[in-house]
């Protein structure tokens, strides 16, 4: 549908997109600045594509620029003015949108595209918007050993240096507004899903005069538990519902089996064969299970989730084959994000829950933080990469217990896990003394000195508040 809009639009891999953006023709577009042209009508719509040049880090032209690519799908009824322009974001960070133009149109249609335009923008660092590549493997990052994950993120930070400060949610929404301005669109209707419910409220905060209305689906809470224990509860609830609704298993027994399997994986990891062999540790199992239990369950649940109760019961009885099969299948699920950008935005937006200059080992800080956290007896689960989604009775954060938890409340954030909604709203700061009051895509457990605190989240911290 988008052939001819922007070179490289339908190339099959992110590496091909990178070459397209770096092609001589793309370089010529970069010199000319903003570029627009029409595409042939498709299914009753005309699609206008182009790019807008933006500084990578505002006020620091020496750090380079990025091209922000867009595709403007015009309404079917061109005889009347547009009733509005819908600007969606499907999630991420790191998910390109122009590549998925068919799905985007289907998601917002239902008659809306008869009189509304649809503005699709690839966030900086993804798809056609100067895709970021700092050496983080997209498909394999989730299953890498934690030490290797940490080294990978360290190398990414070292490679980017001061340019890392350009990859933030705040910079992304500023790009969106620059595209809106370039196209002469007075206001947009924001439609956010998943991470989009984190990103687009930032747009509304920074550019309130540009927003007509906003729809959020699957919204991140404005106040949230920094230990992410609700994720563990979500996994347990999903398993219980599978059993209750199918009648094929006992929900409480399945959750008990989950605790037992996690306890074993904590000390006795399980090798998993396949195209990409890896070792199934407690934290890796938690990550894979959380993704299966929460991704697309409302519309298109992954059938692999239904195999979990039987796999857990078999593992408790000594047969690990079904558990290995689940892990191999879950790990092979295609990754839709540019993980380089996913990691970079998370490291920038989310304040580390320990000081990068701490003299005490992180496990000791973790234990101390967990002892002071409300509800510490409950298990916490965390979003990827590699973080446990369901704990195994006792304390800790689900990845091998408290002794190996890496992200806990601490002085670096000046916050504790939210016990009373609304009690922890803070005014954003532009230094590293306090955390910005914004929701988080995932706790960046792998951040270290390669991501200095003062360049870690300054862009996000310019948001004054997330109070509705």
Please list the strands of the largest sheet in the order they lie side by side: 1-2-3-5-4-6-7
Any idea what the CATH superfamily of the domain at 3-11 and 33-132 and 167-217 is called? Answer: Alpha/Beta hydrolase fold, catalytic domain
Judging by the overall fold, what is the CATH architecture of the domain at 3-11 and 33-132 and 167-217?
A: 3-Layer(aba) Sandwich
Helix content: 25-40%
Provide the residue-averaged pLDDT. Answer: 70
Major sheet: size, sense and barrel closure? 7 strands, mixed
- Strand-residue fraction? 5-15%
CATH topology of the domain at 3-11 and 33-132 and 167-217: Rossmann fold
CATH class of the domain at 3-11 and 33-132 and 167-217: Alpha Beta
What does this protein look like?
It contains 14 helices and nine strands. It is of the alpha/beta class. Among the domains are: 3-11 and 33-132 and 167-217, Alpha/Beta hydrolase fold, catalytic domain (Rossmann fold), CATH 3.40.50; 229-332, no CATH class. It has a seven-stranded mixed sheet, with helices on both faces. The chain has a two-stranded antiparallel sheet with strand order 8-9. The longest helix is centred in the middle third of the chain and has 18 residues, at 229-246. One of its GO terms (molecular function) is aminopeptidase activity. Pfam families: Abhydrolase_1. It comes from Nocardia amikacinitolerans. Residues 369-468 are annotated as: Disordered.
């Amino acid at each position: 549908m988008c052939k001819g809009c922007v070179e490289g639009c339908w190339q099959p891999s992110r590496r091909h997109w990178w070459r397209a953006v770096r092609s001589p023709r793309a370089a010529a577009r970069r010199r000319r600045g903003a570029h627009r042209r029409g595409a042939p009508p498709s299914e009753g719509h005309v699609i206008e594509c182009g790019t807008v040049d933006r500084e990578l880090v505002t006020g620091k032209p020496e750090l380079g620029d990025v091209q922000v690519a867009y595709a403007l799908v015009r309404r079917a009824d061109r005889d009347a003015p547009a009733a509005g322009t819908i600007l969606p974001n499907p999630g991420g960070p790191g998910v390109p949108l122009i590549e998925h133009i068919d799905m985007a149109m289907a998601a917002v249609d239902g008659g809306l595209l008869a009189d509304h335009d649809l503005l699709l923008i690839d966030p900086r660092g993804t798809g056609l918007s100067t895709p970021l590549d700092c050496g983080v493997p997209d498909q394999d990052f989730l299953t890498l050993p934690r030490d290797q994950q940490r080294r990978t993120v360290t190398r990414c930070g070292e490679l980017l240096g001061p340019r890392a400060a350009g990859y933030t949610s705040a910079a992304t929404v500023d790009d969106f507004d620059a595209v809106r301005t370039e196209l002469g669109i007075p206001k947009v209707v924001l439609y956010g899903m998943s991470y989009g419910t984190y990103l687009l409220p930032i747009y509304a905060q920074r550019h309130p005069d540009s927003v007509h209305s906003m729809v959020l689906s699957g919204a991140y809470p404005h106040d949230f538990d920094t230990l992410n224990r609700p994720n563990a509860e979500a996994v347990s609830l999903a398993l219980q519902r599978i059993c209750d609704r199918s009648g094929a298993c006992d929900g409480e027994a399945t959750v008990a089996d989950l605790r037992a399997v996690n306890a074993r994986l904590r000390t006795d990891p399980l090798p998993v064969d396949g195209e990409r062999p890896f070792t199934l540790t407690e934290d890796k199992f938690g990550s894979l299970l959380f993704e299966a239990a929460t991704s697309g369950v409302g519309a298109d649940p992954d059938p692999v989730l239904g195999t979990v109760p039987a796999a857990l019961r078999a593992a408790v009885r000594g047969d690990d084959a079904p558990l290995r099969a689940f892990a191999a299948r879950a790990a092979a699920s295609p990754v839709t994000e540019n993980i380089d950008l996913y990691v970079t935005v998370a490291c920038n937006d989310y304040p580390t829950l320990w000081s990068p200059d701490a003299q005490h080992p992180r496990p000791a800080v973790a234990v101390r933080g967990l002892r002071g956290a409300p509800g510490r007896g409950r298990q916490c689960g965390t979003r990827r990469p590699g973080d446990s989604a369901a704990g195994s009775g006792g304390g800790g954060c689900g990845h091998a217990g408290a002794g190996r938890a890496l992200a806990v409340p601490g002085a670096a954030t000046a916050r504790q896990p939210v016990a009373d909604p609304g009690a922890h709203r803070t005014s954003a700061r532009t230094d590293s003394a306090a955390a910005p009051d914004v929701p988080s895509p995932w706790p960046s457990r792998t951040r270290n000195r390669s991501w200095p605190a003062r360049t870690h989240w300054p862009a996000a911290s310019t948001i004054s508040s997330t109070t509705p």
